[in-house]
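HUMAN: Mind making up another protein with tokenized structure?

ASSISTANT:
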Amino acid sequence: MFRKLIIASAFAVSMTAGLAAPVAVAQAASAAYSAAETDIGTLLDNPETKAILEKHVPGMTTNPQIDMARPMTLKQVQTYEPEKFSDEVLAKIDADLAKLPAKK
């Protein structure tokens, strides 16, 4: 009886592991842009994502020092400007970014 339970448990775990990978890939594919992963330069170069940045952080896209931040992510910039780039602001940016179609 115990052996059957172990075999059934092992089978269930192996089936779950097999299903988890496609789910993770699908979630990653659905989020074309993110505050934690996409560099600011990429966000500035796309008119749609640039508008989202300007909506949530007014003046960011026209700041004379923005070019220095191009290789960084919004999450990285948060360490320098925690009030302006709070977790709440980044979550709102991510929510709007998630509505956009995938990057080409």
Remarks:
- The longest helix spans residues 2-30.
- Confidence is low (pLDDT under 50) at residues 1-17, 23-29.
- Helices lie at 2-30, 40-45, 47-56, 66-69, 74-77, 87-98.
- The CA atoms of residues 1 and 7 lie 10 Å apart.
